[in-house]
Amino acid sequence: MTDLVHYIALSLLPSWSWLPIAERLRAGDSPAVVFDQLMATHWPDDPHHRSDVYARARAAIDRGQTRRIAPIAWSNPVYPVALTTIADPPPVLWMQGSSAAFDRPAVAIVGARAASAYGLSVAERLAADLASRGLAIVSGLARGVDSAAHRGALSAGGVTLGIMGSGVDVVYPPEHASLARDMQQDGGVVSELVPGTPPLPQFFPMRNRIISGLSRAVVVIEAGEKSGSLITARCALEQGRDVLAVPGNVLSGRNRGAHALLKDGAKIVESADDILEELRMPPAACASTCGETASLHQDPILACLTPGEPSDLDAIAERSGLTTARLLPRLFELELQGAVARVGGGRFVRV
């Protein structure tokens, strides 16, 4: 519990501290040490700031317990490994739902809030097709394309995650409260913001890095020239994720952002198979995320791991010669097979 309070305290600090926090945690510093260093460096003349932040952290834990919202700290083995690979992962995620959803390969589907009937239909169909093949659908629970993607995944009996720009107990827009509840059976709603945080405008661009960070690819549907979906696409590119886009009507103007992505080299999406092909996941093999693999004794990734000695992704990538984007899916497969286990801080150990 003590470590959890420190992680939450770190999450309450300003956004400029995200990068140094991540760097120090990756270096092995405890959250208490990182917090103390930041306090001493940036608030040396404000003796009350430390106690105020800790008080807010403890209040967040109490509110989360009351509303059955689970805090998932960086050190927790269920913290999504994909998110630990981005430059500025949240020290804590808050979730209502099933953390097992993080174990699935995920695809983000994002787009216009004021989407056309065509855009809504495409989002729902793509999400349903991908979810029926075992992938998790990630989006932002917003009006338009986001909610259509969530509903499409649910219609196929699949898993979907909504990343929020507010506390998970403050659903925005309010009319999506029932949708958020439906998502929690096998998926859930997730936020880096402590429970009770209102949906302020600055929080929505912030959460886009989490949408892309959790996903192996981002699919953009009906994005205008200034669409927030383009922020998610830019985050995806910076994080080494694939970016894909659905072509649309050239006359309406609502597709200019998506078409700009296509001009810059994003793959055209006409069906779920286009996405699976880009991810190098054979369509016939996707219902089971493991599929048929080579003998575990000959697996080159297992050969990079020593039993009982945890390794982080950077170390495994260096030994295997694979990028983290290609390495993560294989580690997930090996985890499902019981050959590796996840430990805190996004590290893996051979079983």
Sketch the major β-sheet. Answer: 9 strands, mixed
Estimate the strand proportion: 5-15%
Spatial shape = globular
The share of residues in helices is 40-55%
Q: Find the structural class using helix and strand composition.
A: alpha/beta
By CATH, the topology of the largest domain is Rossmann fold
Secondary-structure element sequence?
A: HHHHEHEEHEHEHEHEHEHEHEHHEE
Strand arrangement in the largest pleated sheet: 1-2-6-5-4-3-7-8-9
Number of H/I helices: 14
State the total count of DSSP E strands.
12
Q: Which CATH class of the largest domain is shown?
A: Alpha Beta
What's the CATH architecture name of the largest domain?
3-Layer(aba) Sandwich
Q: Return the average pLDDT rounded to an integer.
A: 88
Q: What's the N-to-C terminus distance?
A: 27 Å
Number of domains: 3
Based on CA atoms alone, the radius of gyration comes out at 20 Å
Low-confidence runs (pLDDT<50, min 5 residues)? Answer: 285-297
